Amino acid sequence: MKFTFPKSERLTQTKIIDILFQKDSQIVAQRFVYPFRLLYPSTLAQEESTKILISVPKRKFKKAVDRNLIKRRIREAYRLSKPHYVGESFKQLPEYIAFVYIGSIIEPFDLIQKRVHAILKDFSNLKTKDIPTDART
To answer: In DSSP terms, which residues pair with 17 in a beta bridge?
Structure first.
């Protein structure tokens, strides 16, 4: 079991990022799990790995040091939780997931790790028909 987070699993394509953040999009679903707002396409992944994007708003955290700390904690939590979902259940994850941090304070790593683990578990338990097409879930 490898605990890695290679560059191939990072979402960097601007067209896909624009689609994920487009307002009132029918193909993008969102879910709120404090301290995250998750954006993902309504269809399941056809690729072998899921690509993720981590965003921390500058409006809430003015200092880059704070934003980078939160992003590091989210990346580490994802890296440690991801191997539990490799295999058949990992193919049921969305192709792209955007983690937008909506908390107003810097949460401890333990809470972030629990929430990321719960998010991946919820996604792996969903069936194709269970993924909402509505943007308000």
So the answer is: none
Q: What is the pTM of this model?
A: 0.83
DSSP annotation string for the chain:
------GGGB---HHHHHHHT-TT-SSEEEEEETTEEEEEESSBP-SSS-EEEEE--TTT--SHHHHHHHHHHHHHHHHHHGGGG-STTGGGSBSEEEEEE--SS---HHHHHHHHHHHHHHHHH--GGGS-SSS--
**Cβ–Cβ contacts within 10 Å for residue 58, how many?**
10
Lowest-confidence region among 44-53, 69-78, 99-108, 124-133: 124-133
Helices 109-125 and 64-81, packing angle to 10 deg? 50
- Residue 101 and residue 73 in contact, taking contact as beta carbons nearer than 8 Å: no
Domains of the chain, with CATH numbers?
8-126 (3.30.230.10)
